[in-house]
Write a structure and sequence with these properties.
- The complex is a heterodimer.
- Chain A is an alpha/beta fold.
- Helices cover 37% and strands 21% of the residues of chain A.
- Chain A has one domain (2-253): Rossmann fold.
- Chain A has helices spanning 2-8, 64-71, 89-92, 113-118, 122-125, 133-145, 161-174, 191-206, 221-224, 241-244, 247-254, 256-266, and strands spanning 26-35, 38-48, 53-57, 79-83, 96-99, 179-183, 210-214, 227-232, 234-240.
- The termini of chain A are far apart.
- By secondary structure, chain B is mainly alpha-helical.
- Chain B has a single domain, classed as ABC transporter involved in vitamin B12 uptake, BtuC, CATH 1.10.3470.10.
- Chain B is 75% helix and 0% strand.
- Chain B contains 13 helices and no strands.
- Chain B has helices spanning 2-32, 37-57, 62-87, 91-112, 122-127, 147-151, 156-173, 175-183, 185-190, 195-217, 219-234, 240-268, 277-295.
- The longest helix of chain B has 31 residues, at 2-32.
- Chain B is globular.
- The chains are: A alpha/beta, B mainly alpha.
- Chain A binds chain B through residues 69, 72-74, 90, 93, 96, 98, 100, 104-112, 115-116, 119, 122-123, 125-128, 155, 157-161, 163-164, 171, and chain B through 32, 173-177, 179-180, 182-187, 189-192, 234, 237-240, 242-243, 298, 300, 302-303, 305-308.
Chain lengths: 271, 308
C-alpha cells in the first residue's frame, strides 16, 4: 500500500538500477516534472561528483528549484529515476540536508531560532524523545558556525533576511548530512551573510561532503563552485566550471541579448 | 445554591469548556496554516450529515447523527480538495463553495423531511442547546460521587470529554510533525514526513472536534473556538508551546465567562430573560481576541522582518 502510494506519487520503486553511476552522491536520469500541462523540467540527466560543490544555474523559470524539489520528493515527478549514494530517496534521507528558499516559509511563525535549528535533529528526536542539554549544545554549536549563537532565543521574525538564511543553514548543519542541497542560499542576503555562508559551504566540502546549490549570480560561479549544471528546462551543460561554464553554453542556456550583457560582465574571453 | 448550580449549570459549563478546548487545540495549527476557515466549513456541512443520519436511522439517536455528520465532514474535505484541484481556485474559495452548497442542501433536506416531531432545526444547528443539558439527577456536589446520579448525566458530556481528550493526545503525540510541517512543509518532506497525511489528519481531527462540539453547542461556538482563542494566543507569545497553552486558557475563560454572563448578565442589567449561552461564549471569545489585538505583547505586523 505504501509502496503503491510512493510509486503513484512518482517516487522510484526500491532498487532501481542506475548503472555504474549509482554510487555518486546524486544521480538523476530522465527527470520530467510538469506543473499543469507545461513541463518545468524535461528529461533531465544529472550526475553530482563526490565531494564537489555544484551550482545549478539557468534563467528564471528554467526549472532549477523544481529540479531540486523533484529530487527530494517535495514535488511529484512525472518520470525519472533519482539515486542518492546509490540508493533510492526513501533509504538515503538521513544522508541529505536541505535548505529551502527563505521565502518559502512564514517567518512570523511562533518559534525561536534555537527551535528551528533543533528541527534539524528531528530524526534523532523522533516523536516524543525529550530535547536534552546535549541536543541544545549541538544546535548552539551549529549556530556558532554561522555566527548566530547570540540570536538563539530570538523569535525568527525579528531577524534580517540574511540572518534567517543563516539559521536555515544552521538547521541543515544540525542534520549532519553527506549531501547538502540548497535552494538559492545567497538570494537577498547581505555581504557578510554571503561570506559566512560560502565559508561554511567550503568547510563542508573540505570535510568531504557534497554541496549542490541553486544559484542565480553568475558573477560568483567561478569563485564559489567547482562544478556547474546549466539548465533551461532541458540540460544545457554539465561539468567542471573550467569546462562547462563557457560563453557558448551560457548563450545556449540564457539566449541572445541577455547573454551578451552577461558576457561583458563576466569577461569570459580571458579564460 | 450548590444543588441548583450543580443541577442547572455545572454540566453546561463543563460541556462548553470541553468543546472550546477540543476546538482550540487543532485550531492553533489551522490558524497558522491559514486554514482557519475549514472549521467554519466543517461546522456548516455537518448539518446535511445530521439530517441524513436522522433520515436513515429514523431516530434522533445521537450516534447515527454523529456518524452522518462525520461522513459529511469527510465528504466536504474531499469536495474542497476536488474543487481546488479541478477548478484551480484558491483554497478559501473552494471552501466557500463547498460549505455553502452543502449547508443549503442541509436546509432544504431539513425542510422537506418530517423532522417536526424531533428537536432538529436550523436554529438548533447554529446555537446548540447548551442550556437544556441539565443534570436532573443531581442534588448537590455530593452527586459527583453518586453512581446513580452520575448515570443520569447528559450523554453529551462524556462524549465531548472523550473528544477533548482525543484532541489532547493527538496534539501531544504528533506535536513535532505538526509543528515542523506547519512551519516548513518542504523540509518536513525531506525528513521523510508524510505531510499530506499530517495535513489530512489535522483536518479530520478538526472535523471530529467540530462534529462533537456542534452536537452539544452548535456551530457558532465551533467557528469562534477554532479561530479566536488561537489567534488571541498568538498575540500573547512568540512560542508555539506557550501559544497552545494560552489558547486553552482563553477557551476555558470564554466558555465560563460566556455562560455566566448569558445566564446572569441580563438579570444584572434588569432584563428578565437570559441570552443564548452559545452566542455569549462566542462573543466573549471575540472580545478576548479584540483585547489581545489591542494590548497583546506580541502583536507585530506580520511578514516584516526587522532590519539588522
Amino acid at each position: 500500500m505504501i509502496r503503491a502510494l510512493q510509486t503513484a506519487m512518482g517516487r522510484s520503486p526500491i532498487g532501481d538500477p542506475l548503472d555504474t553511476l549509482s554510487d555518486k552522491p546524486l544521480a538523476v536520469r530522465g527527470l520530467t516534472v510538469s506543473y499543469g500541462d507545461k513541463p518545468a523540467v524535461f528529461s533531465l540527466d544529472m550526475t553530482v561528483e563526490d565531494g564537489s560543490m555544484t551550482a545549478i544555474i539557468g534563467p528564471n523559470g528554467a526549472g532549477k528549484s523544481t529540479t531540486l524539489k523533484a529530487v527530494l520528493g517535495i514535488v511529484p515527478r512525472l518520470s525519472g529515476v533519482v539515486s542518492v549514494f546509490g540508493q533510492p530517496l526513501a533509504k538515503s534521507r538521513p544522508r541529505i540536508a536541505y535548505v529551502p528558499q527563505r521565502a518559502s516559509v512564514d517567518w512570523d511563525f511562533p518559534t525561536r531560532v534555537i527551535d528551528v535549528v533543533l528541527m534539524g535533529l528531528s530524526r534523532e528526536l523522533g516523536l516524543l524523545r525529550p530535547v536534552r542539554e546535549s541536543h541544545r549544545q549541538r544546535a548552539s554549536d551549529c549556530l556558532e558556525r554561522v555566527g548566530m549563537r547570540d540570536f538563539a532565543e530570538r523569535q525568527i521574525g525579528q531577524l534580517s533576511g540574511g540572518q534567517q538564511q543563516r539559521v536555515f543553514l544552521a538547521r541543515a548543519l544540525a542534520q549532519d548530512a553527506d549531501l547538502y542541497l540548497l535552494d538559492e542560499p545567497f538570494a537577498g542576503v547581505d555581504a557578510a551573510t554571503e561570506r559566512a555562508i560560502i565559508d561554511v559551504l567550503k568547510g563542508l566540502r573540505s570535510e568531504g561532503r557534497t554541496v549542490v546549490a541553486v544559484h542565480h549570480d553568475l558573477s560568483t560561479v567561478r569563485d564559489y563552485f567547482d562544478h556547474v549544471m546549466m539548465i533551461n528546462v532541458h540540460k544545457v551543460a554539465e561539468g567542471p566550471v573550467a569546462e562547462a561554464f563557457s560563453e557558448e553554453n551560457l548563450q545556449r542556456a540564457y539566449g541572445g541579448r541577455l547573454a551578451a550583457n552577461l558576457m561583458n560582465q563576466l569577461q569570459l574571453g580571458g579564460h | 445554591m450548590g444543588g441548583e448550580f450543580v443541577m442547572l449549570s455545572l454540566v453546561p459549563i463543563l460541556i462548553g469548556v470541553l468543546a472550546a478546548i477540543a476546538c482550540a487545540l487543532p485550531g492553533n495549527f489551522l490558524v497558522l496554516r491559514r486554514q482557519a476557515l475549514i472549521g467554519d466549513a466543517i461546522s456548516h456541512v455537518v448539518l446535511p450529515g445530521i439530517v441524513v443520519g436522522f433520515l436513515l436511522s429514523g431516530t434522533v439517536s445521537s450516534w447515527a447523527m454523529m456518524a452522518g455528520a462525520a461522513g459529511a465532514a469527510v465528504v466536504a474535505v474531499l469536495l474542497i480538495e476536488l474543487i481546488r484541484r479541478l477548478g484551480r481556485i484558491e483554497p478559501g474559495a473552494a471552501m466557500g463553495v463547498a460549505f455553502t452548497a452543502l449547508f443549503a442542501f442541509g436546509v432544504l433536506l431539513l425542510e422537506q423531511s418530517d423532522t417536526s416531531s424531533v428537536h432538529l432545526d436550523v436554529q438548533h444547528a447554529l446555537y446548540g442547546n447548551l442550556e437544556s443539558l441539565i443534570w436532573v439527577e443531581a442534588k448537590g456536589w455530593s452527586s459527583l460521587f453518586d453512581p446513580v446520579a452520575l448515570a443520569g448525566l447528559p450523554p453529551e458530556l462524556p462524549r465531548i470529554a472523550i473528544v477533548a481528550l482525543l484532541m489532547l493526545v493527538f496534539t501531544v503525540l504528533f506535536w513535532r510533525p505538526l509543528k515542523i510541517s506547519t512551519f516548513d512543509e518542504g523540509f518536513a518532506r525531506v525528513l521523510g514526513m508524510r505531510t499530506n497525511l499530517i495535513g489530512f489528519g489535522l483536518v479530520i481531527m478538526a472535523a471530529i472536534a467540530a462534529v462533537a462540539a456542534f452536537d452539544a453547542v452548535g456551530s457558532i461556538i465551533v467557528i469562534a473556538m477554532f479561530i479566536c482563542p488561537p489567534a488571541a494566543a498568538r498575540l500573547m507569545t512568540n512560542r508555539l508551546e506557550a501559544q497552545v497553552l494560552w489558547s486553552v486558557a482563553f477557551a476555558v475563560f470564554s466558555a465560563v465567562m460566556g455562560y455566566v454572563l448569558a445566564g446572569y448578565g441580563p438579570l444584572w442589567l434588569g432584563a428578565d430573560d437570559a441570552v443564548s449561552a452559545a452566542g455569549m461564549i462566542a462573543t466573549v471569545s471575540g472580545l478576548v481576541l479584540a483585547l489581545a489585538a489591542l494590548y497583546g505583547p506580541h502583536r507585530r505586523s506580520s511578514g516584516s522582518p526587522a532590519e539588522g
